[in-house]
Amino acid sequence: MNVIVINDLVKIYDSNAMQVTAIDHVNLTIEDGEFTAIVGPSGSGKTTLLNLIGGLDTPNQGQIIVENVDITAMSPKQLIEFRLHNIGFVFQSYNLIPVLTAYENVAFIMELQRAPKPAIERRTKDILNEVGLGDRMNSRPNELSGGQQQRVAVARAMASKPKFIIADEPTANLDSKSTEKLLEMMETLNQREQITFLFSTHDQRVMNKAHRIIVLEDGKIVDDYRK
């Protein structure tokens, strides 16, 4: 089953009185349960493509269809609601709320969704235990290592059981040991919960773990293969 279908996608930015084509007529299909990395040199369009798929940016042309819903036809308000219930995000800078504990950071999205409190408590504890942080639920981000903070970020993205998770350079600020642990954890969660993961990365370790590699250059897909 296709989770994401992209048709003839174009994104153009105005930069210093010039037009820069960041995404150049991209067509792409992502299937349910994939563990896929989008790779390419800096400026190739990786982050732009993820931002478009995640509804954080809008294209100049083309369609992005998620679970048979055309998100490019949505209003900004509809997009916010759609992202809340369907897409999880993991960023290289973690983006945790500093004043909240690990538990509160993970529970936050489900609270925005107005999930019942008992369900929030159960799911938050379960997912933090699953990512190996059951004993750090009451710790704030500044009390956690970079690897632990990124695991909280993954737990937060997973907690509401989204259709897919977008991870933009999730290992960029991590050492080798933390990266290996994080990737193994995400691959296990991907297989166990069948949530689709879509990465952008420069990291060879992420590429080695990915089951599919999509190569971008100058906003175009130049290679796409499964391992």
Keywords:
alpha/beta, six-stranded mixed sheet, four-stranded antiparallel sheet, 7 helices
Give a description of the structure.
The chain has 227 residues and is an alpha/beta fold. Helices cover 36% and strands 31% of the residues. It has helices at residues 46-53, 76-86, 102-112, 117-130, 146-159, 176-193, 204-209; strands at residues 2-15, 18-31, 35-39, 61-66, 69-70, 87-91, 164-168, 196-201, 212-217, 220-226. It has a six-stranded mixed β-sheet, with helices on both faces. A hairpin with a 2-residue loop joins strand 9 (212-217) and strand 10 (220-226). Helix 3 (102-112) packs across helix 4 (117-130) and helix 4 (117-130) crosses helix 5. The chain is globular, with a radius of gyration of 17 Å. The model has no long low-confidence stretch (mean pLDDT 93).
In the predicted model, the low-confidence regions spanning at least 5 consecutive residues are none
Termini Cα gap: 19 Å
N-to-C SSE series?
EEEHEEHEHHHEHEHEE
- What would you call the structural class? alpha/beta
C-alpha-based Rg, rounded:
17 Å
Number of helices: 7
Largest sheet: 6 strands, mixed
Q: How many β strands by DSSP?
A: 10
Helix content: 25-40%
